[in-house]
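Morning run. Coffee first, then this:
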Amino acid sequence: MSVNPLAPTWLRYPLDANALEQGVWSRNASRSPEGELVIAGARASELVAEYGTPVYVVDENDVRGRARDIHSAFSDAFAAVGSSAKVYYAGKAFLSTQVAAWMMADGLNIDVCSGGELAVALAGGAEPARLGLHGNNKSLAEIDRAVSVGIGAIVLDSPIEVERVAEAAARHGRVQPVRLRVNSGVHAHTHEYLATAREDQKFGIPLMDVAALVARIRSHDSLEFLGLHSHIGSQIFEADGFAEAAHRLFAVHAELLETGPVPELNLGGGFGIAYNSSDQALPVDVLAQRIARIVADAAAERGIPVPVIAVEPGRSIIGPSTTTLYSVGTIKDVLVSTGSTGEAGETTATRKYVSVDGGMSDNIRPALYGADYSVRIANRSSTAEAELVRVAGKHCESGDIVVHADYLPGDVEPGDILAIPATGAYGWAMASNYNYLARPPVVAVRDGRARILVRGETEADLLARDAGLDSE
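And here it is:
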């Protein structure tokens, strides 16, 4: 056993560097008897032979199972406190026409944040009445299209949108249901939350301004006020932040009830998932029960009925279901100072850099947020001693890191296939063509069979947009 001093304190030295950490990998990921990674019955090597690398691999039964689990958990939890729940899949995490169809079939609504996301959801057969439109700067065209197709709810994000949506609804002869996004002043990230009087951010309305703006909404015959909307953060592992937000929101909710109906309250999403062995995500049924109890207690404190609750999970549905496969290109050991000194002076340790054929163009989160991921060799198992590695991308940026720190068998070599789990949320959705890399395909696997959800790009696709090649 050789624990590298460069390893972060949260990273445990593995007893088996081939093992797939439960809760991090998709539910149907396993090792074959020969040691190869198998996802929903499909071998990693076969997927790579057919689709190349990088490739996003979605475990279809896993993502759909998680969607159903969340829908059932929140429905049951709020039924137990005398109310009901609406679950919106947050399409910004990852959306394709097939995913939209899955969500509709499994009983979820879908939240979209742009005209493009709306178009994808509709093309996937989503019922307009089960869609919600978000965004801090919705264009007039986006508002008009949403209203015209009969969208179920529009989240108003600024005062100017009240008149914009009202005018569009009147023009189309509709009464448009709307929610009002508010700044509760609560930020929740993982195990910590911060409550402040006023947030300095682009989203939402300060709580102190809500009553006047709701009066404006209610003054329009073409608008129907559904209730308040709040989003307190992402990667939340506890319910504490929701408790503080609910306490603040219900004070305003009760005040609004004095002048008209407020049938719903949207608490947003942000439910955390495990990206590595240090992350401990709450089981969804436990989280739902805790949030239901928080809401019921807040309503009882104010002496008002428990409203219909809406939530918007995205990452917790699609994130754990997806694994990205890469091919190893180059490997090199880099001698790094440990920041301490010994009898011989400054001490050093070796970090093994393993470079793959993708990077920040297919997963920007490590570079953008410092996000930590896990990694395993996918094409084989190994009995070699585990060594600390940093998985790097191929882009011309020193910050192009895919996995900051994990242990792999020390015999990892060029040509190996590496698998990064939990890449379903904000991987493909935030992908780019930096350095003119083509965006990878997204493949769904089920019962050993694979099919394309989103075709990968080619160099011809990239060149097709270059107007300099147009004939004169």
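DSSP finds twelve helices and 23 strands in the chain. Good start to the day.
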